[in-house]
Every structure is written in structure tokens, then in C-alpha cells.
Amino acid sequence: MQLKPIYKKMIIITGRIIFLSFTIISMAFVNNEYKKKKVESIHIQIISDNQPMMSSIKSIEKYIEHFELPHQFYYRINFYEIENHLNKKNEIKNSTVYFTPNKQLYIIVKERKPIARIISKHQQYYIDDEWKTLKITQPYKVPIIINDVHEPATAFQLYPIYKTFISENFRQVSTLDDIYIILNTLYSDTVLYNFIDHIHINKNHEITLYPVIGKFKITSGQSNCFKEKMNKLKLFIINGLNKNNAWNKYTEINIKYKNLIYCTKK
Q: Which of 5, 97, 111, 224 has the fewest beta carbons under 10 Å from its own?
């Protein structure tokens, strides 16, 4: 005797419901058992291109100790809150926190990368590769910009400095837009970035650069057409200074005029 199609369909649906219910109950049981697991050990990894690194495992352990993570139950760990707290740490770019089935808690942080140090009359700070300012205590071998204008640097800890381009009034009193133009040009060219030791910006927004090789200064005027000026300087370094071994021949190299380079001999 054959079952009618409608009965066959009902049996299949009933079977699927039973299987689904069993699966949900099993998953709930497994999940509940997983939540009862405790942290057996904590592993902290720091990803960084900085030498030396800005962070240390001990400093991160200290920074998150109020979460009481050792031997903590899994269900009591607020992963989002820990990551959010770590991301507020000045030198950390981002973080990931996760728990494994074998009761290991992993904390992975990536450091910010400073690309320039800014020194003004009232403060010192660094700018990272995302164009945000940061305060760090130990010196790093990066180009130094000596700035005669006092800047509201703390306003750009969360926002990149190129946001200054939005306001014309702010640009007139600030040099952060000049700093961005300078660094964006230099950082995109490894030859120029490693060639320049420090930079001076005066109150008239005029830029003077000092190289790591040769006892001369490079006068570039204001930041307009700065990329073209640097391309011109690079050609002069390769085909002029280096080719003719003229590193100690001049006191000043002036590149602020279009298609021209003026050199002052010693």
C-alpha cells in the first residue's frame, strides 16, 4: 500500500523539524559548555615596523589588567570592549582579541608608524602614516620639522591633518596643510625621504630643508608646486651633486623658482 503524496510530504517535513530541533538543542548545549571555559593562558603579539617598538608586552598587560582576564570565564569576556580600549592607546593602530577552543586568549595589536617629528615652540609630537598626530616619549629616526607656528595638534589625534584643507581660514594661520604637502611628497619617494634630515617652516610658510649629506640648505619657498620642486631637486642630486661629487661645494641650493636652480658657492 502506497502512501498518498500529501502524507509523504508531511513525513518529510516532520523529519526535518525533528532534525533541526535536535541540531539547535545540541548547539545550545555545546555553546553553553564553551561559555563555561576559562582562560588558561594569554598570548600577546605586537605587529610593528618600528625599531624600537613603541609598545611592549608588559605595557599592554598593564593597560588591560583591570579586565581581569587570567582564568576568566569565556562568557564574561567583552571582546569588543577590550579591543576598543586597546585602540584608544596612543601608539596602537588597531587590535584583535579572540578565544580558542583550547582555552587560549590571543591579543594581537598593530602599532602606528611615525613618519615625522614636529617640533614647535610649545609642543612636540609625531605624525603617523595615516596623517594623525601622536605623542610618544622616545625619539625615532624620522625627518624632523621645526615649525615656528603653534598648532592645535591634539585636534588631529583622531582626524588626519589634511582635514585642514577644508577651511581656508584655518589654512591661513596653520602650517599643517604645508606639513601634509611636504610629507606626502617625501614619504612617497624613498630617496628624498631618506635624504632629508630636518625641515624648517617659518611664520611666512617658507620652507627650508637640510639634507643628511652635505653642509648646505635647500630653499624651496612656500609649499605650492612642492612636488615639482622635489622632482627637480632629485634630478640635481643624481646628475649634479652625486655625479660631480659636489656635496661640499655649496652653502645653499635654491629651488623655489620654476625650471631653475640657483646654487650659492662656499
A: 5
Report the chain's mean pLDDT, rounded to a whole number. 83
> Which residues have C-beta within 8 Å of that of residue 91, sequence separation ≥ 6?
54, 55, 111, 112, 134, 136
Q: For 70-81, write each residue's pLDDT tens digit.
A: 999 888 889 999
Residue of 154, 94, 83 lying closest to 122 (CA atoms): 154
For residue 16, give every residue at least 6 positions away whose Cβ sits within 8 Å of its Cβ, in sequence order, or none: none
Show the 3-state SS of 174-205.
Answer: CCHHHHHHHHHHHHCCHHHHHHEEEEEECCCC
How are beta strands 114-119 and 124-128 bridged, if at all?
A: antiparallel
Could you tell me the domains of the chain? 41-111 (3.10.20.310), 114-265 (3.40.50)
Burial class (CB in 10 A: 0-12, 13-18, 19+), 156: buried
Q: Per the confidence metrics, is the pTM higher than 0.85?
A: no
What is the chain's alpha carbon radius of gyration, rounded to the nearest angstrom?
A: 29
pLDDT at 82: 96
Contact predicate 144/198, CB 8 Å: yes
